[in-house]
Structures are given as C-alpha cells and as structure tokens.
From TrEMBL:
<protein>
    <submittedName>
        <fullName>Aminoglycoside phosphotransferase family protein</fullName>
    </submittedName>
</protein>
<dbReference type="Pfam" id="PF01636">
    <property type="entry name" value="APH"/>
</dbReference>
<keyword id="KW-0808">Transferase</keyword>
<dbReference type="InterPro" id="IPR011009">
    <property type="entry name" value="Kinase-like_dom_sf"/>
</dbReference>
<feature type="domain" description="Aminoglycoside phosphotransferase">
    <location>
        <begin position="33"/>
        <end position="250"/>
    </location>
</feature>
<dbReference type="InterPro" id="IPR002575">
    <property type="entry name" value="Aminoglycoside_PTrfase"/>
</dbReference>
<dbReference type="GO" id="GO:0016740">
    <property type="term" value="F:transferase activity"/>
</dbReference>
Length: 343
C-alpha cells in the first residue's frame, strides 16, 4: 500500500491504531507533510494524533534497508530515552512507521529567532537539551553501525559533473571545493580522526528539534550512526549561521557587504556562545571548541550543497556561505576564540 492522505486512516484501522467509531464521532484532520519521504499527520480536535512516515524511493524498486527502516530500528533501540519520540508501530513490508503526534510543541525554527534577533535563552536551552541527549546515547549499543564520516567530509569522492543526481550548481561547488587545497586538507583531517565511540543523531538542525516548554524532542533519526557528538552540535550552529547569511543584503562594494555582515553577526555570536555554554554545562565536560568550528565549516558545505539542488550557478549568497565554510575549516582556532566566548 502506497500511503496517501486518502488511505492513511485505513492503514491505521488495519493495524488497530484507529477505530471506525472515532471516524464517525469526531472530525479527524489528515494532512500531508511529504518531503524526502511520505509523511502524514492524523489529529483529533484535542491535539492527540499520529505522525506516519513511509519510504518514498527516488526511482525503481524499494530498498530493503531504506532510511525509514533505519529510523524505525533506531527508535526501537532508543525506546524510553528522554528526548526521543516513541515509536508506536512499524510495518516493514510497506516501510511505514507511526509516531505519536507531538501536540503543543513547536519547531525550534519558530522560537530561535524573535523579531529577527536570536533568542539567547532558546539557544542555551537547546544546548543543554542536546547535551542531555548525548549523555543518554553513551550507553546505547551501536557497534553494529558503520560509523562512516558524513558524506560531505568525503567530498573528494564526488565528481564535479552534472547529472540526474547532481545539479550544475552542485557540480560547480564540488569543483571549487576540490580546488581549495587547504579545505580538502582540513576535511581529510576530520575524516582521518572521525570517532566511532557513541551513537549520534546525525542530522541536527532547527527543523528536527521540537520544543515543548524547556524540553526538546529530537525527531528524524534517519541518519543516526556512530560518530562525533560535535557533528550534532555543528548542525545546530549551522542553523544560526545560515539564518545570518540569508539575511545579508549583497552590495556592489564587497567591502561594504563584509562590513554589514560583521555588524549583523554580533547577536548571532552571542547565541552561539550561549548554545555552547548550555551544552558544556549540561554535559559536564569541555569538548574541543576548535574541532566544533571545523565541523561547522563542513556542515555549512553540506547545507550549501543541498541548497544548490536544481540550481545552475552559485548566487552571491551561496558564495558568502562558501567563504564562511572555507574560513571555519581553515582557521577554526580564530573563530573558536571569537565566537564561543560570552560577551
């Protein structure tokens, strides 16, 4: 069964998660949230409900080990861990999982910025929530997972060619990065020293953080693997950095563009410092800030590559993002000293 907005209720009824009387007695809202995979919410008027996700292959036959199948396996492994959604049901043949709908929660993207300015309390709270998640993940078995570095760190494996799976803009980016010797050396160092000691989320960003009061539920575990917890932190940092870059108005004078960007960065720097402070305090440890900054550079490259899907060229904003990623990879010590200290 390929799930649609019209047959999702039937799927839930067939698996005992919904009864016909509920359909007759109440108005149930079924909405599509499909992106990379099919997604549907089924909600009652009081806010209760389910979120259903189903594998959506790009082309050809379905994979047995899709990202949705992997997420279901991870959620089963993480059952009962604070900060992780509860898996209600998984249908392996149809590769569809069912989670509780997170009523009364908001995506971090809705609360991280207030009136165009970073909310420092939200930043610090998110850092603390991520640290508590990482402390919980330390005891979760993960030796069976590959533990490969994120694909962007091995950008040397990509060809700078446009095709069905890579736009011209993405191909141009690959070519430019591969021509930057210092960047490639920094990425090689990250890959060579990639830790595999514990499970991490792997795809951290505002959109995968659902805030409820002072707590956070981290959703979308499709990329969970053994790896570096600082990669998750870098994912959160890039959300603030990408927002900052996106708000920059490019000027004919490059020096003026740089000056305005630096001035506008001050509140973002404070948010990053509070994020880092909240993380270190809750973790009760002092991870390497320079490694975090280098990973931020790599994570920004991934964001840039994803933004260029379907694009023919890099825009002025894309070029700013590339310059920032390059600087963080090549000179992480400077940024760590300037950014991660509260002012």
């Amino acid at each position: 069964m390929i799930l649609t907005r019209h047959n999702t209720a039937v799927f839930l009824i067939n698996h005992g998660l919904l009864d016909i009387r509920s359909l007759l007695d109440q108005v149930i809202a079924i909405r599509s949230h499909s992106q990379r995979n099919r997604g549907f919410s089924v909600c009652w008027p009081d806010g209760r409900g389910y979120y259903i996700k189903q594998h959506q292959p790009d082309a050809g036959p379905w994979e047995k080990r899709s990202s949705v199948a992997h997420e279901a396996a991870m959620l089963e492994r993480l059952a009962g861990l604070a900060g992780v959604p509860s898996l209600r049901f998984y249908e392996p043949l149809r590769q569809a999982l069912v989670l509780d709908w997170l009523a009364s929660s908001e995506g971090a993207e809705a609360r991280a910025m207030v009136g165009g300015v970073p909310d420092l309390a939200v930043a610090q709270g998110l850092g603390g929530c991520l640290a508590r998640l990482h402390r919980g993940l330390v005891g979760i078995a993960s030796d069976d997972l590959a533990g490969d570095p994120p694909w962007i760190i091995r950008i040397d494996r990509l060809y700078p060619l446009a095709g069905e799976d890579q736009s011209w803009g993405q191909a141009h980016l690959v070519a430019q990065v591969q021509a930057m010797g210092e960047c490639m050396a920094a990425l090689a160092t990250l890959a060579a020293h990639w830790p595999r000691a514990q499970l991490i989320h792997g795809d951290m960003k505002w959109q995968n953080c659902r805030l409820r009061g002072h707590d956070c539920i981290f959703i979308d575990w499709e990329l969970a693997d053994r790896g570096d917890p600082l990669w998750d932190m870098a994912g959160l940092c890039q959300s603030w950095l990408k927002d900052w870059i996106d708000r920059q108005a490019t000027q004919p004078d490059a020096a003026e563009t740089t000056r305005q960007a630096a001035s506008g960065f001050v509140p973002y720097q404070r948010a990053l410092a509070r994020l880092w402070q909240g993380y270190c305090q809750a973790l009760e440890a002092n991870p390497d800030p320079e490694r975090l900054i280098a990973l931020c550079g790599a994570r920004l490259l991934q964001t840039l590559y994803e933004d260029l899907a379907g694009e023919a060229q890099l825009s002025a904003t894309h070029i700013l993002l590339l310059q920032l990623a390059r600087n963080l990879l090549v000179a992480p010590r400077d940024a760590a000293r300037q950014w991660l200290v509260q002012t």
